[in-house]
Amino acid sequence: MTISPSVHGLICYGPPSSLVIYNPCTRRSITLPKIKAGRRAINQYIGYDPLDGNYKVVCITRGMPMLRNRRGLAEEIQVLTLGTRDSSWRMIHDIIPPHSPVSEELCINGVLYYRAFIGTKLNESAIMSFDVRSEKFDLIKVPCNFRSFSKLAKYEGKLAVIFYEKKTSGIIGLWILEDASNGEWSKKTFALPNLAASSTNSRILKLQKFRTTDADTCEIIFTPSYAHSSLSSAIYCDLKENKVRKFVKEGWTENYLPCNADSVSSTQVENVMFL
């Protein structure tokens, strides 16, 4: 089961056979019509257009993988608009750039961005954009092949990609998309505050993962891969303000238990939309 990040107060989760839209504010949910994909894999995303106030769910069916990396090309794209009388899936027939979608996305100002792989071997990093209003897809060139531990982020209203310059150095790099049509990016670097930096340099580095939120300041959240009494529940780091907060959950055991945070948000919107 996959969980999409919160988009203007709504969350999309579940397997393709029973995708669910959940509103944490009202604690109500709806199950979307089933997608017929057979044995093919599906990536789902949710986007929001602030001008029209529309939510749209995008499902991309991937072809069977032909390479060892098990990545398949996007074959079918279907879109469903929430809150309409005819809440059914519509096929997108426009020609889109060949790519293999990745389940990591971010919606900014009515544009849904998600990571992808392109090239003959599907091993070149790229980012796809989906305009929620016009339902147009575009391929965005990236400045380099992004590392496996890089994440999509939002910085001053723009799409960004955040990554470790060196994983044990406490230095964070940030590529910021300045012009999507021309593939222009700028780069910034930040030094992690002491608390967060010490966590990345500790002997339990391999037990820590970092994620980003939808905050406009490129906020990073370090979460543990395992629940253990020696680990913090979460460390929030605001790169722009150079601030850090530590959260500890009491009652964790001395045994290392698998722990995973699928979706993290620090700017949850209270949405009273009735599902």
TrEMBL record:
Residues 2-257 form the F-box associated beta-propeller type domain. Signal peptide: none annotated. InterPro entries: F-box-assoc_dom_typ3, F-box-assoc_interact_dom. It comes from the Eukaryota. Pfam families: FBA_3 (PF08268). This is F-box associated beta-propeller type 3 domain-containing protein. It comes from Arabidopsis thaliana (Mouse-ear cress).
